[in-house]
Amino acid sequence: APRAPVVNGSLWVVAGEPVTVTCSADSDPAPIVTVLRGRRPVAVAVYEPQVTMALAAAQPEDAGEYLCVAENQHGQHSTAFN
């Protein structure tokens, strides 16, 4: 079964500044890793060990909870971050 994905931390971001968040997972077979905002996927990597969500200029409305989900045919794990 896949292990819970790891996120490079919750971040404090200044509005207008770029932000990059990487979520990684380790599983065999390789996972599908998705970053969700609500129910909407904002970044997806298929059969890759990590996915990166990048915002060129963060806005106040980008604040809030995101979910990183790693899944393969053996199961699914998720990690929330702000």
Describe this structure in words.
With 82 residues, the protein is mostly beta strands. The chain has one domain (6-81): Immunoglobulin-like. Helix content is 0%, strand content 50%. The protein is built from no helices and 7 strands. The chain has strands spanning 6-7, 19-24, 32-37, 40-46, 50-55, 66-72, 75-81. Strands 4-3-6-7 form a 4-stranded antiparallel beta sheet, with no helix packed on it. A hairpin with a 2-residue loop joins strand 6 and strand 7. It starts with 5 loop residues before the first strand and ends with a strand. The mean pLDDT is 89.
What is the gist of this entry?
This is SMP protein. This protein has 82 residues and is an all-beta fold.
Feature tags:
4-stranded antiparallel beta sheet, mainly beta, 7 strands, 82 residues, Ig_sub2, Immunoglobulin-like, Ig-like_dom_sf, 50% strand, Ig_sub, SMP protein, 3-stranded antiparallel beta sheet
